[in-house]
Amino acid sequence: MTADTGTGTIRLGVLGAGNIADLNVAGYLEHPACEVLAVCDVDAEAAQQAAKRWSVPRVYSDIADLLADSDIDAVEILTPTHLHAAHIRAALDAGKHVSVQKPITNTVDEALGLGKLADEAGLTLRVSECFVHYPPLELAKKLIADGAIGRPTGLRIRTVVGQTDSQFQADLRPEGYGWRLDDRSPGGHLFDDMVHKYAMAMWLVDQDIVSVQAVVRRRDLFFEPCAVIFEYEDPDLLGTMEVQYAPGMWLRSRYYGADEFFEVQGDDGFLWVTRATGEMHELAPVVHYAGKDNERTWTAFDDVDADWGSGFRRSSAHFVDSLLSGTPAAMTAVEAAKVLQLCFAVYQASDSRAPVDPRTITAGSVTPQGWADW
Q1: How do strand 258-266 and strand 269-273 relate by DSSP bridges?
Q2: CA-CA distance, 3 to 73, in Å (whole number)?
């Protein structure tokens, strides 16, 4: 639905001024048709500091006051995930369009129910998934859709989590992680961060996953190494995902101490996306090999914007543009619910040591054995 602001400008309120807020808000501040009008956080000092950094005129410490502000057209929700459902519902009930940080909620039924509520109210509810708007991954998706590698037959996603000396990492507030480490989260890192990669496992090849096999291990309080096999709607397409934790290894990164690598194999060639959060490889951000017949060419896309922060800025701009044009905003609540289903299928498959169809998880959440038992 087009946002009828009467001014041609989206007036935004930001709910939550924690660790990830600056990355999400940057794109709104840069957009010529967006005015960041207010910021709200239960930590009044954090809200005041964010308002000063962003030159935002209004500061609130109660969500009710933010949502009662009739000048605000839409809200960006950046609160802890276990609060999302209540905050999304309150914003929709107040007649605000909503962008919410991934994961959408802690349960599948909440995600689907909130999507239905938004549709019934004629409001936009979208999940801010920065990887959907990260230029190297966007380019890879387009190349796949254009047939650059022929029919996709394999997808591999690798994540390694270690240490970094980035200023971004040094500036993170430790208290912003507490809710990820206990029963307020269904499973920590494989839930909070891996939703990016679960989303990519479907989005890159534009196919749903119908079966999951997985082994999940735990190290320390936060990181869970895992190995996963995906079966897709197309029986000739298989995917794998692995997560490794290397606490003694330093990574080159401008952001978190993590690095990703994506490979999509097709009948006629393959694609690599060599980076996202980190920048470990001395390779172009996107590499394409075409090996059909006598073509056999390597193409290195060196000029694509590979700053991981660009995904956040472009995601914010996309929300504004979608509201003004009345076009759907990615990703939808239905798409976000599928991501939750895939995440929970990984846990369930590991616990049961048997294949799981993500589509069978229609309500609630799944927690891996041993989570938050200390």
Answers
A1: antiparallel
A2: 7
**Contact in structure between 204 and 149 (CB atoms under 8 Å):** no
Q: Quick check: pTM over 0.70?
A: yes
Contact 233, 207 (CB under 8 A): yes
Partner residues linked to 242 by β-bridges: 158, 227
Please choose, from the candidates 332, 342, 48, 69, the residue with its C-alpha nearest in 3D space to the C-alpha of residue 198.
342
Mean pLDDT of 70-86: 98
The tokens for 358 are 């993500």
- Per residue in 20-35, pLDDT (tens digit) is 999 999 999 999 999 9
- Residue 203 predicted with pLDDT over 80: yes
Helix (H, G, I), strand (E, B) or coil at 356: strand
Q: How confident is the model at residue 7 (pLDDT cuts 50, 70, 90)?
A: low
Starting from the edge strand earliest in sequence, which strands make up the sheet with 125-128, in order? 58-60, 34-40, 10-15, 74-77, 97-101, 125-128
- Rounded to an integer, what distance in angstroms lies between the CA atom of residue 104 and that of residue 54? 25
pLDDT of residue 159: 97
Which domains does the chain carry? Answer: 10-130+312-328 (3.40.50.720), 132-305 (3.30.360.10)
Per-residue DSSP letters for 317-340?
Answer: HHHHHHHHHT---SSPHHHHHHHH
3-class SS string, 249-272: EECCECCCCEEEEEEEEECCEEEE
State the residue for tokens 């936009």. 124
Q: Exposed, middle or buried by CB within 10 Å (0-12, 13-18, 19+), for 156?
A: middle
Tens of pLDDT along 251-287? 999 999 999 999 999 999 999 999 999 999 999 999 9
Q: Which of 61, 58, 19, 57 is nearest to 44 (CA)?
A: 61
Q: How many distinct helices (H) and strands (E) make up the chain?
A: 11, 14
Is there a contact between 40 and 51 (Cβ–Cβ < 8 Å)?
Answer: no
> If you count them, how many residues does the chain have?
374
Local confidence band at 221 (pLDDT 50, 70, 90 cut-offs):
confident
Interval 355-372: pLDDT, tens: 999 999 999 999 988 786
